[in-house]
Amino acid sequence: MKNITARIVLWIVGVGYPLLAITAVLLALSKDPGYPQLIWQNSLIGSPVAVGASAKPSNPNGLSDFEMTNGIGPLKEAIEVGAIDPALAARGAKLFKIKCSACHKLDERYVGPPLRGVTSFRTPTYILNMILNPNEMVQKHPVAKGLLAQYLTIMSPQGMDREKARAILEFLRQDFEQNMK
Ligand code: HEC
User: Fold this and answer.
1) Which of 103, 109, 141 has most ligand 1 atoms within 8 Å of CB, for mutation?
2) Residue 61 to residue 144: CA distance in whole angstroms
3) Is 34-180 a CATH 3.60.150.10 domain?
4) pLDDT, tens digit, for every residue of 89-106?
5) Ligand 1 pocket: which of 107, 130, 166 to mutate (most atoms <8 Å of CB)?
6) How many helices and strands, by DSSP H and E, does the chain display?
7) What is the pLDDT of residues 1-19, one digit of tens each?
């Protein structure tokens, strides 16, 4: 009988308390507005939340609301996307293979983050600005900066123009439709 009591006490001290402590730390982190961003980026089955829509990331560089949501770059107005255009997506798939797959896989972490589902938690305009203007994005945008801190590699510009970037966006949208919905 004594033995069982001792075991229960040991279990509480050895397993219960550490678990409680870990939970408390995770809870505290998740309340820091800077962290949910990083957590999303890891969860592939991302939240369908646009940048800045729920937990607002910190904004030390004083970006405008537009920039927080849509990134910093050549696109100063949000683009509209409609139904997926398969021909455009096919072009994007080819470009992705040539220009992006050295660093990105769709479904797992590589040099850069996995991109499957990115269209569910970043706006189309944000994705285009990231593709077209990665240097400034990682310097100034808290989300891109957070990713840089995680991946420790700067996404080098890939000589993309708007049309090519748009085709890749279409490919990523189609990939999400086909694999995650
Ligand atoms: C040299 C490696 C490299 C190449 C090439 C590269 N990327 Fe990246 N990419 C990264 C890294 C690393 C990050 C995280 C931010 C950072 O550290 O610069 C990133 C971030 C991103 C993001 C932001 C993801 C998010 O969750 O916000 C998108 C979108 C993206 N890349 C798309 C592309 C596309 C499209 C191409 C091809 C045109 C490309 N990347 C080429 C390394 C690369």
Assistant:
1) 103
2) 13
3) no
4) 999 999 999 999 999 999
5) 130
6) 10, 0
7) 568 888 877 887 787 777 7
